[in-house]
Amino acid sequence: MTEPLITTPLRERAAQALGDRFLHEALDIATTRFIALRRDAFGDFPEGEALRDRARAIKEATLQRLDAHLETLVANIERLGGHVHFATTAEEAREIVLDIARRTGARMAVKSKSMATEEIHLNDALQAIGVTPVETDLGEYIIQLAHERPSHIIAPAIHKTKGQVAELFSRELRRPGLPADPEVLTKIAREELREKFLTADLGITGANFAVADTGTVVLVTNEGNGRMVTSLPRVHVAVMGVEKVIPSMTDLAVFLAILAKSATGQKLSVYTTLVQGPRRPGELEGPDEFHLVLLDNGRVAQLAGPLRESLYCLRCGACLNVCPVYRQIGGHAYGYTYPGPIGILLTAMLNGPASVRDLSHASSLCGACADACPVRIDIPRMLIELRREVDVRGIAPRSERIVFKALARLLRSPTLYRLAARIGRAAQRPFVSDGRIRALPSFFGEWTKTRDLPSIAARTFQERWRDLS
Amino acid sequence: MTSHKLGPDDGASSSRRAGARTTKAEFLARVRGEMAKTPGLFVAAPAERPAQPRQRLELLRRELSERWPHTLERFRAEFEHVAGVFHRVPTAADVPAALERICRERGARRVVSWPSEELGVAIAPVLGAAGIAVEPMPRAVPPDAERLRIRAAVAEADVGVTGADLAVAETGTLVLVAAAGRPRSTSLLPPCHVAVFDRTALVESLEQVGLALEAWHEGPAPAERGAVINFITGPSRTADIELTLTRGVHGPKEIHALFVDGGLGLHG
Amino acid sequence: MSVSAAAGATPRVALMITCLADMFYPEVGERIVRLLRRLGVEVTLPTGQTCCGLPLFNSGYHDEAAAVAARTVTIFRDAEAVIVPSGSCAWMVKHEYPGLLRGRAEAADAERLAARTWEFSQFLVRRLGRTTFESDVEGPLAYHDSCHLLRGLHEGATPRTLLNNLSGAAVVPLPGSDECCGFGGSFSVRLPEVSTSILERKLANLEASGARCLVACDAGCLMQIRGGLARRNSPLRALHLAEVLKS
């Protein structure tokens, strides 16, 4: 179990998010923009569809020989003078990083954006042993100062207004009266963080890919903090889920061709950094030590599990941008580290089925996510599988199971079905006016609070059929 | 799907002694154990990689040398599309003057640069005469104190001048392989980065970059090669505040490509 | 795909009315029957229909869904072709029935049924080759892609072909036509606030389109969208495609 189970119902968290006017607008603008950017990027890219198929095939095949590829990766990283660590649990991963920090006497660590380190709650653990973690990705820096968690996989501070950021910087950085101007605020972040980059003992990153053939760890970024973090401090630690390994440099080119396009519509992100162990003897710059922490934390169990396909995820965020639910409620309402459609699957992977009792239903199963996914992960299918799991394991409330079992009985019997129509027709009478129903008691009221309901027809189609023959 | 397993396997952690770490053997054994549950369920095609990539890269270079002007035009368009500034000079001898102009336009007084052997042209004399200080990066690694001083100097510099191993037309990307005398921070810390290269760096597509990467890793790496390869596509940027695009977040605010028609005499 | 009936033979089709159309929109079923008969198609209605089982399937009750599917497959076993007025139900039959019934006695019948099932607009255009109709309503009309038809059955063309070839009504594009309406079956009452918020976006897009009437090929979408329009006392309408084509 990585994260404690959230007990407030999703519906409450969602309703709270829906009430946040700025969040609503920010989400609308951001997701609409990302959708358009992605559409344009792929519209201009006829090879795109074939590359997506190839990318998926590479992921599928790689997982099928994961042990061999991991062996190759480890051997190559060690040959380059790096170290590889194996973390079965989130706790173990944290301990490994803390050990490295302790051993190298680090007092401050600069971090490049890493959802894997969010997942294992690394920052709190570092803080607890007296190592100050400093997020350097601007969006992550903002939410770190605000003591919040990211609300989108690639745009973590999407929920904040520039006014809020200005206020935040003014207060936390003791620079009163900052204007709500992104240029000014970015410049300040650059100044504040530049000093951190140059003095940090430890650099911590995630990794987008690890190429087994050459022992290369790949970071895809836009700001330059990824390059700073992997070149300036004495020690570099990369935390990476095992599913990120790919066999060859040729494969890397396939993924690079579709990743940024899916995430932001860029042909490539500004910086793609290929790290190959610690600095060489003849190199002026670079870390003296390089560590890769391979993270299991529920992933390995899915190699043969129902969520296997979610291991293909490139963490591009495209599914978030097109999800009608995410677009309305944003990332925080999901409650766990990973939001959006893929986030529900990852939450189940990391925390077990009980954690997605509500979340597995945070979807209208519209399929936009599967459409947008660069590696064509069939998210809706797995969401339905999660719902099955929640039902089979008795995690769903008993009342719900009773209702669905009754429905099933009804739908198997034309007699009961016809009876239900007759009963419904009679029961609805007090509520019908003009053929519409505006308010219904109890469970049905969930619909009628905001929408009219049609009334059950005086004669169903099957009852009318004789007249039509 | 075969199993109804969801969530991390608590069995693994609970049977572990406190403080004991997962060994590679244990980790891989777990992986193998899971993989064994789905034999033949998924296609396990061998990884794609070209045979003899170095040879193929050579062939590709020869092919590309025949259509380099077209590739250059595409590179320029894409480079400018990501807000790069493109310059073109006839010969290597024209490079220092072009750099001087770039510096003057920015009021730049301090330049850090890859050494002339790595650039294929000497820039210090001309710039020095114009009152612009040029500090070349060392090819041999100096003691730590000097390394720190150099780092500070690079952080204070106005312009960083490097070469480029590849210029990718499809995306407007420059690829820089770190090595002795070709350190990383030159293209990262100063607010303005200028990359000087010629037609031998031009490739058309990411696919060809993949081939180059394979070729560079065929056989043992040359002794002077560094531990990082950087792909640079435009100046540093972010849109993290209200999706407003700003440049020069941590990396350079400006990136210039200085193309030398007549060649730099670097590649044999 | 083209008209494949042997020369002179009348095409026969069995109507899978779907639970929602049966209970709430029988007039849609009536119009479909009249229209098909006018086109020379014989329509039968296998008796004792209930539901395709999608609500059970989507909520994870797969054994129960399989039992309902088995029944449906048996009811339609003798049909040459099956026509369905809802994209989601057509999807269920074509995509999920074979998997649900694999290894069971009904497995072969399920495969056959999947291959012979058509969503309404697909049947008109791809099976009968009929694309031109008169409009029975005043436009402008705007088409909403239901998720299961568009992304499940990969069909965005046939409804548009029919609408664009209508005489008597203009067609305007609907911004975000491929965006979900927020119905999602039980989703609409499990997370009603989110469902409504999604619906509001759809309605805003409808208003922005300048259309007088939204057209869809799914009873679930129609229930959601009509429900929202009615609650707002909106003059705009939401109709099933069958209610637009003059029969």
List the helices and strands and how they pair.
The complex is a heterotrimer of chains A (469), B (268) and C (247).
Chain A lengths: L9 H9 L2 H23 L4 H17 L1 H14 L3 E5 L2 H14 L4 E4 L3 H5 L2 H7 L3 E4 L2 H8 L16 H11 L9 H18 L2 E4 L3 E3 L4 E6 L3 H7 L3 E7 L3 E2 L2 H15 L7 E5 L13 E7 L22 H5 L1 H6 L10 H12 L16 H5 L6 H14 L5 H15 L1 H15 L3 E2 L2 E2 L7 H4 L4 E2 L6 H8 L1
Parallel strand pairs in A: 1-10, 2-3, 2-4, 4-7, 5-8, 7-10
Antiparallel strand pairs in A: 5-6, 6-9, 11-12, 12-13
Helix pairs in contact in A: 3-12, 15-17, 18-19
Chain B lengths: L9 H5 L9 H12 L17 H14 L1 H14 L3 E5 L5 H12 L3 E4 L2 H4 L4 H6 L3 E4 L7 H13 L2 E4 L3 E3 L4 E7 L12 E7 L3 E2 L2 H11 L8 E8 L4 E2 L7 E2 L6 E7 L8
Parallel strand pairs in B: 1-12, 2-3, 2-4, 4-7, 5-8, 7-12
Antiparallel strand pairs in B: 5-6, 6-9, 10-11
Helix pairs in contact in B: 3-9
Chain C lengths: L11 E4 L3 H6 L1 H13 L3 E3 L9 H5 L3 H14 L6 E3 L2 H14 L6 H10 E3 H8 L13 E3 L3 H6 L4 H8 L22 H4 L1 H18 L3 E4 L2 H13 L5 E4 H4 L3
Parallel strand pairs in C: 1-2, 1-3, 3-4, 5-6, 6-7
Helix pairs in contact in C: 5-6, 7-9, 11-12
Spell out the key features of this protein:
heterotrimer; A: 469 residues; alpha/beta; Rossmann fold; six-stranded parallel β-sheet; four-stranded mixed β-sheet; 49% helix; B: 268 residues; 9 helices; globular
Total of domains of chain C: 2
Number of helices of chain B: 9
Helix fraction of chain C? 40-55%
Percent strand of chain C: 5-15%
Q: pLDDT average of chain C, as an integer?
A: 95
**Number of separate helices of chain C:** 13
| Structural class label of chain B | alpha/beta
Written overview of the protein:
The complex is a heterotrimer of chains A (469), B (268) and C (247). Chain A has 469 residues and is α/β, with parallel strands linked by helices. Chain A has helices at 10-18, 21-43, 48-64, 66-79, 90-103, 115-119, 122-128, 138-145, 162-172, 182-199, 225-231, 249-263, 318-322, 324-329, 340-351, 368-372, 379-392, 398-412, 414-428, 445-448, 461-468; strands spanning 83-87, 108-111, 132-135, 202-205, 209-211, 216-221, 235-241, 245-246, 271-275, 289-295, 432-433, 436-437, 453-454. In chain A, a hairpin with a 2-residue loop joins strand 11 and strand 12. The longest helix of chain A has 23 residues, at 21-43. In chain B, strands 1-12-7-4-2-3 form a six-stranded parallel β-sheet, sandwiched between helices. Chain B starts with 9 loop residues before the first helix and ends in an 8-residue tail after the last strand. Chain C contains 13 helices and seven strands. Chain C has helices at 19-24, 26-38, 54-58, 62-75, 87-100, 107-116, 120-127, 147-152, 157-164, 187-190, 192-209, 219-231, 241-244; strands at 12-15, 42-44, 82-84, 117-119, 141-143, 213-216, 237-240. In chain C, helix 5 (87-100) packs antiparallel against helix 6 (107-116). Residues 1-7 of chain C have low confidence and may be disordered. Chains in contact: A-B, A-C.
